[in-house]
Sequence to fold (124 residues):
Amino acid sequence: MPHLTIQATPNVSISHEESLLKSLNKVLWDSGHFGNPADIKSRIIPLETFLVGVEDDEQTNGFIYASLKIMTGRDLVIRNQLAELLVSTIEKELSANQSGRAALQVCVEVEEISAVYHKKMLGS
Fold:
């Protein structure tokens, strides 16, 4: 735990997806709020179909939505810190890649996982 899911519209340029994920995992690890680096799991889910607004010319707007799910017990201050770290890291990693291609909005939501959550390691 935690689980980080990034959704990105196709008009957002992410030249090195693995590098972005590594940077995000590292900033989460460096925050000191997680016990083992291997617990941090992240993925990028590209969006094929999206709509921003209601007019055709609004489709030049792209977005990244990041959802971080963490175990219960961290207060609002910590959740806000984690969200800020992710926003600033995404901005730093991607701002140069956009080159005017799309106006980019970055949204991060940090939420606690349900109390009904089970995990089991298979194999070694």
Q: What stands out?
A: The mean pLDDT is 88. The CA atoms of residues 8 and 113 lie 22 Å apart.
